[in-house]
Amino acid sequence: MSAAKVHSLADLKVLRQAMREAEREAAAAAARARAEAARQHREHDLFARSVGAVVPLRPTARAPTATARAQPEPRQRQRDEAAVLAESISDEFDVESLLETDEALSFRRRGVGPEVVRKLRRGVWAIQAQLDLHGLRRDEARERLAAFLRDAVRAGARCVRVVHGKGNGSPGREPVLKHRVQGWLVQKAAVLAFTQARAQDGGHGALIVLLRPTSV
Questions:
Q1: Which of 1, 18, 40, 181 satisfies CB 3.0 to 4.6 Å to 164 for a cystine?
Q2: Who wins on pLDDT, 175 or 35?
Q3: Pairwise CA distance, residues 202 & 178, whole Å
């Protein structure tokens, strides 16, 4: 017997073995399928025997049901409340540690150089709007200041004056409203810096405020 023939017989043996394995796998798969079908059939019969005869219901007229309409979300009110919260200013804010220790008790926000305060004090920027708080009660003054700053920013104003009074009519002649105004201004992100006004602009009875430029 030649080597080529022996090789061919060996290949044939391997092929037959592979075919037998494939047949066994196919038979096993078929047996599993039959078992699954038999199980489902038994379960169906068991359900049918348990329930008994089923009679379809007669169709009946149904009144249309009104779909409950979703309540509209008060989004505008939520936006308004969020805006009020963002613009709110507190009386409990301690501003003393943020003020520069000079005679004018100036303030400049982080990133704003000291030359900005010096220019503000010299009147380099023209005053574009003014608010007079003299004689107002604390709550009214706070609300007026918040509204004034909001309107000034919207109008694109850069430099404004806030008159808080010199305190001549207050007990001890202390400018109580002045310290309140300083604390309120520091809490407003639109305020970059402020300083006491020059004598011709109101002196220690007013503050000159530099506002953040409006984004274009």
A1: 181
A2: 35
A3: 13
